[in-house]
Amino acid sequence: MGYVLLRNWIGAAVCWLATVALLVAALPADVDGVPFGLLVGYGVVLLAAAADGARRGLRATLRIGAPVRRLALPLALVLLAVPAGGSLAYGSARDEAKEQALLEQLAAADKLVKSADGLAFAKAEPIYRQALTGYEDLGTRYGGSRAGKLVPDRLDAYYKTVSAPYGEKKYCEAIAPLRHLRELPATVDKGLLGSRPAKTDEPLAESLYQCGTAALGVQTADPTASDSLNALYDTFPKAEQTARVEPAVREAIKTRTTVLSGSDPCPATTQLRALDSSVGNMKDPSLAGAAKEAKEAVQKGDFACGTDEFKDKEFSLAASTMTDYAKAYPDSPQAAHARSIAIAAEIAEEEPAAGKSLPPADVPDGARMVMVISNDGPGEVEVLYTGPMTGRITLKACGTCKKYQTPLLVNSPKIKACTGPSSKYPKATLLLPAGDYHFLQKRAATGTSTAGDTKSSKTKIEPGYSYTNCLYVTSLF
Question: Half-sphere exposure of 290 toward its Cβ, with a 13 Å CA cutoff?
């Protein structure tokens, strides 16, 4: 304005260009404001213009009337009010720009939470933590802003979103998210979180209990059961859910033990074994009694399963199960019967008639008949027998015995087995109650044979008789 009064149009144009440059750089207002260098430069231009204007004005001769001179001071004040008011308006605009930037930051955090919803928690957790960083920054540094005042509601929504599996009763899936929410005070401002973490105690305890007890007896989930229940004992030792663990374990054992007397005990035995493994991995003293019950139930289940396999003519499985039982429980009152069932099952694999019924648990009383078995052949011989009495014996190899050659019939009269001196042949004596017996001889491989020989036979033992049994080998060549 001074340059205009002086009719110095070049000076006026320079001032106007500097002002336009300032306005172009400053508007619209943003969070960062006007660059400091530009403000300094504009100030230098103003001071230079003022000094130059004062120099020119003092030297110039202007024909200005008194009324105009009286307006000079008010006009100067008005002109000073314009930049001052502009600065205030610009500050307000800049504050609004900051609010909008903070709202955009809040929206970005909301978007992250929404994008993680539905993902497996292991993949979602880094995204959730990134969103939390945004919420924490807004809630602590800019708590008084519009965005900062919305953070508490966003945290409520965050807790609800992350804990959604618990609301859907997906207890195993809910454990990791709930643990994450409960442990947030270690990494996020405690004042900002308030009482929210404490509210996850009950859902987490219930999830640990429900997940752990649901996995009891599930073979593929054994670590889940023990890990979840151990975590419950460690994290919430006095919780109501913790007190319910021991009764739940006992009930799980009882339920499966009851099934053992049914028609299909093997699946229940498998579940009991998994349950026993779970309880064995749980170290709380209150479960000592339940652990003992689990082991007893597994033992009972093993015998019941082997018996059922025999009845179902699954002789190979029965032999394996009962052999393992006798080895695992040598002091069990049923160990001897288990060995008898294993022997009978092995015979029945070769002669199914031997598996018509289970061998008796006890040997019948009464007279016993003698059966002397001799080995007139190369190779060691194992003899298995079942009937009123079941057992197995092993005869050592006959060092001087050879195979009998017969080109025609096995029972050819030319064969004179066991006719040499009695001391020549390894022997064993059986004392057998009367009844029908199935025998199975298993001859070990020798140097002239890559595989052993197996032969089954049936014999009737009658009272008042003694028996001899000569085992020999024939060959067509």
Answer: 26
Give residue-wise pLDDT tens across range 75-94: 777 777 777 777 777 667 66
* Coil, strand or helix at 456: strand
Q: Can you list the pairs that 147-155 forms with residues at least 24 positions away whose Cβ atoms lie under 8 Å?
A: 147/99, 147/102, 147/103, 147/105, 147/106, 148/102, 150/106, 151/106, 151/192, 152/194, 154/106, 154/109, 154/110, 155/192, 155/193, 155/196
Which token pair is 333? 């009152």
Q: Are strands 369-376 and 467-472 parallel, antiparallel or unpaired?
A: parallel
For 318-327, write each residue's pLDDT tens digit. 999 999 999 9
Encode 253-268: b = buried (16+ Cβ within 10 Å), e = exposed: beebbebbeeeebbeb
| Cα distance between residue 443 and residue 455, in whole Å | 9
pLDDT digits 0-9 by tens, 150-189: 999 999 999 999 999 999 999 999 999 999 999 999 999 9
Token pair 């304005």 is found at 1
The pLDDT value recorded for residue 94 is: 67
Total-model pTM: 0.74
pLDDT average, residue stretch 410-417: 66
Q: Which two tokens stand for residue 186?
A: 């270690």
Note whether 271 and 219 are within 8 A (CB). yes
Residue 296 corresponds to which tokens in the numbers above? 């007893």
The DSSP annotation for 349-373 comes to: HH-GGGGSSPPPSSPPPS--EEEEE
The pLDDT of residue 413 is 59
**Locate tokens 């110039």: which residue?**
60
User: CA–CA separation, 200 vs 48, rounded Å?
Assistant: 67
Q: Count H helices and E strands in the chain, helices first.
A: 18, 9
pLDDT at residue 83, as a whole number: 75
Local structure of 181: helix, strand or coil: helix
Q: For residues 195 and 26, which has the higher predicted lDDT (pLDDT)?
A: 195
Q: Confirm if 96 and 140 have CB atoms less than 8 A apart.
A: no
Looking from the CA of 204 toward its CB, the CA atoms found within 13 Å total 23
User: What 3-state class would DSSP assign to 23?
Assistant: helix
Nearest-angstrom CA–CA distance, 67 and 57? 18
Q: Tokens in use for 400?
A: 């001087």
Rounded Cα distance between 315 and 309, Å, is 7
Burial of 329 (0-12, 13-18, 19+ CB in 10 A): middle
Model confidence at 450, in pLDDT bands (50, 70, 90)? very low
CB-CB contact of 306 with 321 (8 Å): yes
CA separation (Å) from 209 to 167, 243, 273?
15, 10, 20
Dihedral sign for Cα atoms in the order 121, 125, 131, 137:
positive
